[in-house]
């Protein structure tokens, strides 16, 4: 079980460094981050799951000039048209130069992950522990290089926007925030805290204009109606997973109802609730405000993807709230066990009787830990 071994080693290193002041030059830290991610990408480039197959399906549609937002009975992209170009470019490299599509995409996502290492270095005013911890953190490494998920670029742009606001560069911050939305619409979740921290509100037009220009560009060249592009952004809400409230509801109420419809209704209610809370929330440091919104979303969201855990890692390292190490341990174990089950026979007794129940258990423990962290964080704030 290579994944479990690697995850364990990285986790032990992470915990050891978190308890000790280890000084390593920033260029060495970046080098470590690059080597780890290239090695992991090369080692797990053949991992196959629904998410990795999604990349190929969308890329193939784009290269054939088809509209990925209006596919009858086939894959449909639920995100704004920026990721699709990366997917298509990776498939083109594979067709022309025999470079595996997933190798290219995972390296691209990993490049942004390394970028976060540098951002943490700058955001902490050249503190060396924070970037070192992120460089070896097993959560983003496993999700990006094994799972092949693409949350990291959007997270990078969100953190870049936060850093640029610290530097009083509001135009550049708004631009970075806009590209985060254009990659994956998650940063919309943090829009209200971001707006509150921007003094010159005219720069917020960039947050709207940049995604709009990308949508219009795609609409023109792929002959796509704007409604077909906008609709998935509103209706797509992921799926129920092994996580807190969704686990409880999934086994009782939702079993008797239309699960997909209830998921969308409940997700929209949660989002409206978060926006209402964000409007009433008294501004503090932007980083703390973003973390507060993220915790609320994690607690109440009826949908949850294991890849979403990557979003919390930089905040845990930068803010070091209560239980932050414990949360890293639980999330790492959860991810490693889930990914380990992918490369084993799906109907083997080990997977069915041990690994899948452990995945469920870790999801519940992770949710409880986030809830406790939120309560403690608000008691001390």
Question: What labels describe this entry?
Answer:
single chain, 381 residues, mainly alpha, 0% strand
Summarize the structure.
This protein has 381 residues and is an all-alpha fold.
Oligomeric state of this protein: single chain
In total, the number of strands is 0
Largest sheet: none
Order of helices and strands: HHHHHHHHHHHHHHHHHH
Structural class: mainly alpha
Q: Could you tell me the mean pLDDT?
A: 89
Based on CA atoms alone, the radius of gyration comes out at 20 Å
Structure notes:
It is built from 18 helices and no strands. It has 381 residues and is mainly alpha-helical. Helix 5 packs antiparallel against helix 6, helix 5 (101-123) runs parallel beside helix 8 (151-166) and helix 8 runs antiparallel to helix 9 (170-183). The radius of gyration is 20 Å and the shape is globular.
């Amino acid at each position: 079980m290579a994944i479990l071994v690697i995850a364990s080693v990285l986790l032990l290193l992470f915990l050891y460094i978190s308890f000790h002041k280890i000084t390593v030059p920033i260029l060495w830290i970046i080098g470590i981050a690059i080597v780890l991610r290239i090695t992991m990408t090369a080692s797990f480039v053949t991992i196959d799951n629904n998410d990795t197959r999604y990349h190929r399906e969308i890329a193939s549609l784009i290269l054939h000039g088809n509209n990925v937002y209006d596919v009858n009975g086939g894959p449909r992209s639920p995100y704004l048209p920026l990721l699709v170009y990366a997917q298509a470019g990776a498939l083109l490299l594979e067709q022309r130069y025999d470079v595996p599509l997933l190798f290219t995409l995972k390296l691209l996502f990993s490049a942004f992950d390394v970028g976060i290492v540098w951002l943490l270095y700058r955001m902490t005013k050249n503190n060396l522990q924070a970037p070192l911890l992120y460089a070896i953190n097993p959560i983003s490494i496993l999700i990006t290089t094994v799972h092949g998920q693409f949350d990291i670029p959007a997270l990078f742009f969100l953190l870049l926007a936060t850093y640029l606001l610290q530097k009083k560069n509001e135009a550049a911050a708004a631009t970075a925030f806009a590209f985060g939305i254009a990659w994956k619409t998650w940063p919309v979740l943090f829009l209200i805290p971001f707006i509150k921290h921007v003094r010159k509100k005219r720069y917020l037009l960039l947050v709207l204009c940049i995604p709009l220009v990308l949508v219009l560009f795609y609409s023109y060249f792929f002959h796509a109606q704007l409604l077909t592009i906008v609709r998935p952004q509103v209706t797509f809400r992921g799926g129920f997973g092994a996580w807190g409230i969704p686990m409880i509801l999934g086994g009782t109420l939702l079993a008797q109802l239309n699960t997909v419809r209830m998921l969308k209704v409940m997700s929209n209610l949660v989002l409206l609730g978060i926006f209402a809370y964000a409007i009433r929330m008294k501004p503090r440091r932007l980083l703390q405000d973003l973390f507060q919104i993220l915790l609320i979303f994690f607690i109440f969201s009826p949908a949850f993807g294991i890849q979403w855990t990557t979003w919390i890692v930089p905040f845990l390292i930068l803010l070091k709230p209560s239980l932050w190490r414990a949360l890293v341990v639980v999330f790492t174990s959860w991810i490693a066990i889930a990914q380990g089950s992918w490369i084993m026979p799906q109907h083997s007794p080990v997977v069915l009787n041990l690994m899948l129940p452990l995945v469920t258990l870790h999801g519940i423990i992770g949710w409880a830990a986030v809830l406790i962290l939120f309560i403690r964080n608000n008691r001390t704030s």
